[in-house]
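Narrative progress, year one. The postdoctoral researcher (J.K.) led the effort to move from monomer predictions toward full complexes, under supervision of the PI. The following entry was the first complex the group processed end to end, covering 600 residues in total.
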Amino acid sequence: MTHKTLNLHVPTLTRVEGEGAMHVTVEDGEVTDVKLEIYEPPRMFEAFLRGRGYAEPVDITARICGICPVAYQMSAAHAIESIAGVHPGGAIRELRRLLYCGEWIESHVLHMAFLHAPDFVGVDSGIEIAQLHPELMTEVLHLKKTGNRIMEVVGGRPIHPVNVRLGGFYRAPTRAELETLSPDLERAHAGALALLKWVATFDYPSIPNRLADNTEYVSLRHESEYPFNEGRMVSNLGLDLDVATFGEQIREYHVAHSTALHATLGGDNGTGRRYQTGPLARWMNSADLVPSSVRAVADELGVAEVETNPFRSILIRGLEVLWAIEEAQRIIATYRPPARPALEVPAVAGIGHGCTEAPRGTLYHRYEIDASGTITDAVIIPPTSQNQDAIETDLRDFVASHLDLDDHTLGHRCEQVIRNYDPCISCATHFLRFSIDRRD
Amino acid sequence: MVTASRLVVIGVGNRDRGDDAVGPIVCDRLSELNLPGVETIVFEGSVLDLPIHWSASDRVVIVDAAEPAGEPGRISTVDALSTRLVAPGPLSTHTIDVSAAVELARALDRLPTELSIIGIEGAEFEFGAALTPAVQGAANQVTTIVGQRRSRDAERIIEL
């Protein structure tokens, strides 16, 4: 028997939001080790929050991510408002949903067209796709701009919105201001359909014997809406918990090869259940709640109500973009400014939990506040943390079923496996280096 | 009647990061001058969609802070129509800079009539900091240059 060792490096993995490293060991045809290595020092946001005022996390946590600041603002607001028993409804609730629509559109479109699609087309960047499909990519840019415009009109600026506060907003936009978005949304709807139909022509790899097919797909589910801010945490395996109980069930644990904590449900590293969040989970748990117009497009493109192939997550993102556009149009069409832009949220001692659906999955916040309104403890568990085990499992299964590929191709495919999750590891990593150690 | 093409001035940068704010500040000053035919656009976030903010007949000036190289306030100008910018390679959300956006416009065949990139070398990029004096001076200078350019254009149209 020969023992061959190969080390293959991808020194700079691009087209993910952040940077990391990965190592795979193969011995005698068996994948014996997979590590998604996240090695940048923690950013200490949870520590920054301790000792700060209870109204500050909405602004502080938004700075964690330039791609999904609204998710951080919404999870923080819901967690802290729950302590005071304040639940903004009506127009404030609608504006929050509209703001989230903007974030989903711009984040999903960026990932689909510029980060993920190049894998399927066989090019290195969105610029190369632009050369091949200039008309489509012009519409993609318009879609991105539309998402940014929603963020700007509702949130005050397109990145790190400044108009969000506990209880609502500092200023509610007028109806006329929202209506300025309508022409852009109309064009964006056509653009989203074109993007979806193009994406549906891709050849999708698969992962035979994918262990993660048996994983638990977890997301918010609302009684009548595709989820953004509210609902219960549910899964395809029967999980059905309120947000607070769900939060208490998450167990974060540290692994030596990553400075980002991993997470399981209901137990520790050895006994907890592996789960994943994100578009596949949302679609699996709430596809019945999208409007018939979106369902019809899904049917036309052959997207089932249950999709477990992670490579097809790009299709679900496209459907979510379409849905977010239609939801934004609905909100704008029925909008009446609230009597007050925000409800008062008093300082109340207690513990609050918040879960909302960031583009790439469930974002959990927990705050403990004393009677003076000072934060005494804070926990933030982003979706990428929760998805790390699923990513490593997919990598293991993918490599095991594609050992016939040369190292270069296998390396690229492994990056694509990671990109299936649209990981937002920018908070915690530098770059992804891929190495494979083959011992035949 | 001859109509002057629109002059679009795009300021790129984060207003809260010291000298990185120089592009937006130049735009603010030009807006205050209220020059006819001049439109200013500020990009504080991603510049990916920059190519759809101009039309083929526009003349475009992009003002952005340049990284420190020992001479704060130094003004550099690049004609982006005649110069292919550094190939950005595979994009990530961290490398979508002005160069990538301009090359994207080139790939889409969406370049304007004129496209200049003015870089102003910065020194300090701390949160909450003001412009350093040298960069402040450069912002004034660029504002004057761009403003005068528009005035000259207007005179030319009147002569015609």
